[in-house]
Amino acid sequence: MSNIKQALQQRILVLDGAMGTMLQRYKFTEEDYRGERFKDYPSSLKGNNDLLSITQPQAIKDTHAKYFEAGADIVETNTFSGTTIAMADYNMQDLVYELNFQSAKIAKEVADEFTKKEPHKPRFVAGSMGPTNRTASMSPDVNDPGFRAVTFDELRIAYKQQAEALVDGGVDLLLVETVFDTLNAKAALFAIEQVKEEKNIDIPIMLSGTITDASGRTLSGQTAEAFLISVSHIPLLSVGFNCALGANLLQPHLEAIANKTDFAISAHPNAGLPNAFGEYDESPEQMGEQIEEYLKKNLINIIGGCCGTTPEHIKVIAKIAAKYKPRKVLEAIV
User: Fold this and answer.
1) Which of 114, 193, 272, 323 could form a disulfide with 282 if both were Cys (CB 3.0 to 4.6 A apart)?
2) pLDDT digits (tens, 9 = 90+) for 300-330
3) CA distance linking residue 90 with residue 169, whole number of Å
4) How far apart are CA 285 and CA 308, in angstroms?
């Protein structure tokens, strides 16, 4: 695990791109999602991408390999919705441990293969912990502002189960990402601290929020700087932002935190904003040009892509990142 801390001192690390964008290319049917094991499952399973780690493991393996080939140092596990809370949509809460464990195992196998081939460039696996589809800070019912669809403790328990499975599956670090509600993130971070204590391990944690619109705030109303302050009590490897915005619109929010923390800074923006059909049109070259501005201003330590990004985007980003030195981080933290 100290390897990633050393690597951060030496170069800008490259995170992978979108898993969902790559899986859409397969055009998997309901039957493909079900596989043999779930062919008689009572719920519809199409769209449950995390399940593909069990029913279509080769597709997941190939996606990880493509990102590593493109120049990624870190790939994320296929576990964005891997909590009991999110899996309730498919009545698959009981599968959560297996989904996370298998996803971690697949990613780690691919990472080890690449590290073996290129020992000078070790590859890492980040256990992806998404935000869930509920928020602890706000009511989903406009007529009942005090109502909450989930409690802090329910989130903590769900995240703890996910983190345990990811660690057991062999991830090198944990990535709490696409945070739209800082209270949800705090539940995840609290759960991870519990897992670290119980297993007596010190696994690095990346934390990535999402600025949801032009107001420059998260969905639960925090500015970039307020978000940073809210989570700075946890010993993080990195803090940053992903999703919602393209690279150019994300830049001011990275600037807002880059000089205010000793943590590493990460960014994995979308390939621009979605068009009228919900698709992302920004080319690898266009995205690379915008990301180069981050590097010229010495804003980041870890860079990757979110929605709409592909290995082609990561290849361009990795080439650009290789030309720049990483933003300085304190030895004490990293």
Assistant:
1) 272
2) 999 999 999 999 999 999 999 999 999 987 5
3) 23
4) 14
